[in-house]
Amino acid sequence: MYARIISSTGLDTEHAVVTAEKDRDGAIIWCRVNGNYSISCIEDTLNNSPRKATLHADCKTKKYTDFSGRNLQDLDDDILNLDFNEKLGNSSAGGTHIAETAFKALCPKTWQQSN
Q1: In the chain, how many domains are there?
Q2: CA geometry: angle 79, 105, 61, nearest 5 deg
Q3: The domain containing residue 69 runs over which residues?
């Protein structure tokens, strides 16, 4: 899901916080990127999760939360889901691309240095 950042504080610190909210334009982009042009995709995308999400990170340890509320850790080459102690897959729903987007928003300089 594409979301608009509405506030951020402490980026690239041990207490980074970003608040983002979904909107219709973001839902349309998300559905079209995934090859679905239906109205039901847009409505489902908007209605199946909270409208706003607040993400948190400790950029030193690279531990953070994503839009789904998962506790994650960026390992440079992989992303670890700390809730299940397993690596995220690229092809899984909510996989590494989505998780990486949250980390980039919270810790942009840290992410850039590791890539």
Answers
A1: 1
A2: 50
A3: 7-22+51-114
Structural domain includes residue 46? no
Residue 38 lies in a domain: no
Domain contains 65: yes
CA separation for the pair 56, 69 (Å, rounded): 10
Q: Distances from the Cα of 99 to the Cαs of 19, 37, 43, 90, in angstroms?
A: 15, 24, 22, 10
- Rounded alpha-carbon distances, angstroms, from residue 62 to 3, 18, 96, 111: 22, 15, 14, 9
Helices (H), 1-115: 24-33, 39-47, 96-106, 108-114
Spatial separation of the C-alpha atoms in residues 16 and 1, rounded to whole Å: 21
Task: Average pLDDT across each block of 10 residues of the chain; the chain has 115 residues. List them in order.
Answer: 89 96 89 92 87 94 90 90 87 66 93 83
3-state secondary structure of 69: coil
Q: Among residues 99, 107, 97, which one has the least CA distance to residue 61?
A: 107
Q: Does 104 map to a domain?
A: yes
